[in-house]
Specification:
heterotrimer; A mainly alpha (323); B alpha+beta (204); C mainly alpha (366); B: 204 residues; 2 domains; elongated; C: disordered C terminus
């Protein structure tokens, strides 16, 4: 059984969770809506599991574990952010209502450049045209870490950096805007460590040490930034890691059969596009339609629009990269 | 092929029959909630449904010191009669309180406590607030100034220095208390604990 | 079917969790601060929301593994043999511990028993009927879990013929049965109904363990196992949401998913460290530890003329638990199992003897 099978399944699952958590329920929550099927799901599934934001962070964590395990090329990983940022800037300029932070958007050359280079995510109180672009930033770290032939040095160095930033934050330096990236980053490293262990490029004791370090870093970030604690991210991380390990260990014929389905492969190949375009295309469509058609219908239209946009971007970029 | 199809049909039929049985029981008897406890329900507001847990399940802070009573881990806390004197449990029970979640800590002769009494649906928590305050007033506790409007503070100096203050947060009656032999320490610790609790969950 | 060493790891961790939780409560009864608990809670348990969930973690682990290994056994044992072996494994140690606790309690020595201790107390505890009648104090507060276990054993024994031929059928029946019982057992007064409600609410955990075993044995399609497992999990959630008292603490649905995933992963564990002798020895004694640790914790301080939570009492109680558990395992549990197997195989030659089944070696579910 190839390693593609579990990674494909997990990425497809992540795509569904991310779209549901950040587009479907994210949009409804931004308008203070808590309709019945979603409220029921929250009462019967989300709350008993201790998973917040309607599975969105769980999806992100699974995606980052997979990225750490099987990192792609640097340029191909970056492309979704570049394209989505330019699309977002264009959308704002023509007056479309998309998801940005803060909600009142400003598009200048400086902040477009800042978003394209992730500088806006690294500095506090900047306009974020693609609020979830930091996830791709974490994926880029995975690409860099994958270059480390020793297998342990790069993850250890990143963990030390995370630790030092926590110490700075605990001593009063304002790093709240980095809280989520810092908390999610160890998952990328954990995926990388698991891959090295799988390849026997790392002894078991070193893998265990690094893996423990990743979990410790995650817990340390959660403790350092008080605003994060109410979201129970370490709980979501526990599920993500367990699902990831189980998928790697027990994928068999059934898993291969599901992974081979067209819809599974489609989702797995386009998850990053779905992630970044949900806030741009999805929110633009939903906000444009919400006063004219019922929200459930608008949601279907938005999902189709995001799907088409993601598909188009994926095909165009794949063609250009020759794969 | 025909045999496999027949087998699949049989499996389907069995599942349908079992589902009808299960759903029929739900339709006739309910999902399993106790009908006798409907009147004791405490409905919590849910300010952010996207949180992994309702932020209003526990609204009290943990006092410093060695915790000797912690009834916050149980779903419905403790029965009033298990953690309060009989008279007090009776008064609060009649005023609408159904359960108590509490932290009580002890350091030598100084004790501190924060209590959360759930008030059942249909009852104004301010009724319980007045009942609790009147109970201590009738027991000789004097009115004392509080750090904030909405907090009713009672204090005594004999036989030991003590404060008991009550206020309302959503469907809860909150009690903050401190008592011990060192009056200055009791003053100080009560002010600190009340300040912390009110900062975390102001009256509403 | 090879021995699943990975489950030993889980059993030992669950045993540590249950002893840790009861030790924490024990410190509180003595008004003492447990510094290790403070440090561990602040650094590890609280960030991962484990501090309040140690009891669910332990109970879930024991139940899930029990459901798994008992299902392996059910593949090759007749209903009568199945029940006899389970009870031989569980009852002798239980009876010995309860009898000792009863004797000590009768002398007036505090051993964690509240209420009058008389002949009726012993009889009801030995038969686990103290959980069905009020006014009967429990001699060992952990034994309520055995009521749930016994209910599961009875269901499995009754459905063994179905399990052999149509493995999906007991799974489907169990979903419907639990659902119906949840609807029927709505009130939790008197105490008998409360006990029944506890059993019905937590049985899904054992059934999820059963499903993991059936999928692993390839007797159930993975997607079917996932579907039945999801149904059982939703029943657990339903039981939790519709009762104010059962389970008494939140966290069971969360821990069931985590422990189920961990169990599936641990079934795949292999290697020298997992098959280490000390780990296997510790895992075999988890049931004994489960039975003795609470009485030992509460009898130690008065014997040392100190209070619960002092350093001396803590270390003596931990050593006492280990020694008592080892003695119980060596001189009660194992001899009982060996005696029963000898009796089962009487008059038979080697070829006719009951197979040395996997579950017999991992039978200690505590």
């Amino acid at each position: 059984m190839t390693r593609d099978v579990p990674v494909t399944l997990l990425r497809a699952g992540a795509a569904l969770l991310i779209t549901y958590g950040f587009l479907v329920t994210g949009f409804l929550a931004s308008h203070g809506s808590n309709p019945q099927p979603i409220a029921g799901l929250r009462e019967w599934v989300n709350r008993p599991l201790g998973l917040g934001e309607d599975f969105g962070p769980l999806g992100l964590m699974v995606l980052l574990l997979c990225t750490g395990y099987a990192a792609g090329g640097f340029v191909r990983t970056y492309l979704p952010v570049g394209v989505a940022t330019l699309l977002a800037a264009g959308a704002v300029l023509i007056g479309l209502d998309i998801s940005t932070v803060p909600p009142d958007k400003s598009v200048t050359l400086a902040n477009v450049a800042g978003n394209l280079t992730f500088a806006s995510h690294l500095v506090a109180d900047k306009t974020l045209l693609v609020p979830l672009a930091w996830v791709v930033g974490c994926q880029l770290v995975a690409c860099l870490v994958a270059f480390d032939r020793r297998g342990w040095f790069a993850p250890a160095a990143v963990l030390v950096a995370v630790g030092e930033l926590c110490v700075l934050a605990a001593n009063g330096v304002d790093l709240d805007h980095l809280a989520r990236p810092l908390l999610f980053l160890p998952l990328v490293l954990l995926g990388h460590v698991v891959r090295r262990l799988h390849d026997r490029a790392l002894p078991a004791w070193a893998g265990l040490l690094l893996g423990t370090g990743c979990l410790v870093a995650l817990a340390a970030v959660d403790r350092t930034f008080p605003d994060l604690r109410k979201w129970w991210y370490p709980v979501a991380a526990t599920y993500a890691v367990l699902v990831f390990l189980v998928a790697l260990l027990v994928s068999g014929r059934t898993a291969a059969s599901v992974a081979g389905r067209t819809v599974t492969r489609w989702l797995a190949d386009r998850v990053e596009w779905l992630l970044v375009l949900s806030g741009v295309v999805g929110f633009a469509v939903l906000n444009a339609l919400r006063l004219h058609i019922p929200v459930p219908v608008g949601m279907i239209v938005a999902l189709v629009a995001v799907g088409l946009a993601a598909d188009a971007c994926h095909r165009l970029t794949r063609r250009r990269s020759g794969t | 092929m025909r045999g496999a199809r027949r087998g699949a049909v049989a499996v389907g039929v069995v599942h349908v029959l079992l589902a009808v049985l299960a759903l029929g029981a739900v339709a006739v008897l309910g999902t399993g909630a106790d009908p006798d406890r409907v009147d004791l329900r405490v409905t919590l507001p849910d300010p952010d449904p996207r949180l992994p847990v309702n932020a209003d399940v526990l609204v009290i802070v943990r006092p410093p010191g060695t915790v000797v009573l912690d009834t916050t881990k149980e779903k419905r806390g403790a029965w009033l009669a298990d953690v309060l004197p009989a008279k007090e449990a009776n008064v609060l029970g009649h005023a609408g309180a159904v359960d108590a979640k509490a932290f009580v800590s002890r350091d030598g002769a100084l004790s501190r406590g924060v209590w959360q009494f759930g008030i059942r649906d249909g009852v104004d928590p301010h009724v319980a607030l007045r009942a609790a305050d009147d109970l201590y007033g009738a027991g000789g506790w004097q009115r004392a100034p509080g750090p904030r409007r909405g907090l009713l503070v009672r204090a005594q100096t004999q036989p030991i220095a003590a404060y008991r203050a009550h206020y309302v947060v959503g469907p809860y009656l909150i009690r903050v208390e401190a008592y011990g032999s060192d009056a200055a320490a009791v003053d100080r610790e009560f002010a600190a604990l009340a300040g912390r609790q009110l900062a975390e969950r102001p009256p509403r | 079917m090879r021995y699943l060493h990975g489950l030993d790891v889980l059993r030992v961790l669950a045993s540590v969790a249950v002893v840790y939780t009861h030790t924490r409560d024990w410190f509180a009864t003595g008004g003492q601060t447990w510094r290790l608990d403070h440090a561990l809670t602040a650094t590890v348990l609280a960030p991962f929301r484990l501090d309040a969930y140690l009891v669910p973690i332990a109970i879930t682990t024991f139940f899930l593994i029990s459901g798994l290994v008992v299902t392996f056994a059910a593949q090759r044992e007749s209903p009568g043999r199945f029940l006899a072996r389970r009870f031989t494994r569980v009852l002798p140690a239980l009876w010995v511990v309860l009898a000792i606790v009863w004797v000590v309690a009768r002398t007036g020595t505090p051993i964690g028993v509240t209420g009058p201790v008389d002949g009726a107390t012993l009889l009801t505890n030995l038969t686990l009927t103290n959980f069905f009648f009020s006014g009967n104090p429990g001699l060992d507060l952990v034994t309520w879990t055995l009521v749930v276990q016994v209910c599961f054993y009875l269901f499995v024994a009754a459905t063994i013929p179905l399990l052999r031929r149509w493995p999906w059928l007991p799974a489907a029946i169990s979903v419907a049965l639990v659902s119906v019982l949840l609807s029927v057992v709505r009130t939790e007064s008197p105490v008998a109904l409360h006990t029944l409600r506890v059993a019905v609410t937590l049985l899904p955990i054992l059934f999820i363990g059963q499903l993991i075993a059936l999928v692993r044995l390839r007797r159930l399609h993975p997607l079917a196992g996932l579907a039945y497992g999801a149904a059982h999990w939703l029943l657990l959630v339903r039981g939790d949401l519709t009762s104010d008292f059962t389970p008494p603490v939140p966290g069971y649905p969360q821990t069931v998913v985590c422990i189920a995933l961990l169990t599936i992963a641990c079934c795949r564990m292999s290697g020298r460290w997992v098959a280490a002798g000390w780990l296997s020895a510790a895992a075999n004694r988890t049931y004994a530890v489960f039975l003795v640790h609470v009485p030992v914790l509460y009898v130690t301080p008065p014997l040392l003329s100190t209070t619960a939570g002092t350093t001396l009492a803590f270390f003596v109680a931990m050593v006492g638990t280990a020694v008592a558990a080892d003695l119980l395992y060596r001189f009660v549990e194992m001899p009982a199992v060996r005696w029963w197997r000898t009796w089962e195989n009487r008059g038979q030659n080697t070829a006719e003897r009951a197979p040395d089944d996997l579950a017999g070696r991992v039978e200690a579910t505590r």
